[in-house]
Amino acid sequence: MGGKKTSITNHIKRIRLARTEFTQAGLAERVGATRQTIIAIEAQKYAPSLELAFRIAHVLGEPVEEVFQFDSSLWD
Q1: How many Å apart are CA 20 and CA 1, to the nearest integer?
Q2: What is each CA distance from 35 to 46, 71, 72, 73, 74, in whole angstroms?
Q3: What are the pLDDT tens digits along the chain (76 aa)?
Q4: Which pTM was predicted?
Q5: Alpha-carbon gap, residue 48 to 56, rounded angstroms
Q6: For residue range 35-47, what is the model confidence (pLDDT) as tens digits?
Q7: Which domains, ranges and CATH numbers included, belong to the chain?
Q8: Which of 22, 36, 43, 72 is disulfide-compatible with 26, CB 3.0–4.6 A?
Q9: Cα(11)–Cα(47) distance, integer angstroms
C-alpha cells in the first residue's frame, strides 16, 4: 500500500459514521475483510476489488456510485 493515493475516492467513513452504528471492525466483519483493509480504503490508500466495493455499498445501504467515485482526470 505504501501511502500512494488511488484514483478511487470514497465516502465510507462519512456514511459509516452518519448512517450506521458500524465500527471499522464491524464493517470489516460484515463484508468479509480485515479492519486494516477498511482503514486503508477509508484513508484512500487502497482501492478495493470490485466485489468488495459492492459488498461495502450493500452493507452501508447505498448504491456503489454513492460510496465510490473514480477520478478520471488522473488518466487524461
Answers
A1: 27
A2: 13, 25, 28, 30, 28
A3: 445 566 889 999 999 999 878 999 999 999 999 999 999 999 999 999 999 999 999 999 999 999 999 887 766 6
A4: 0.86
A5: 9
A6: 999 999 999 999 9
A7: 8-75 (1.10.260.40)
A8: 22
A9: 13
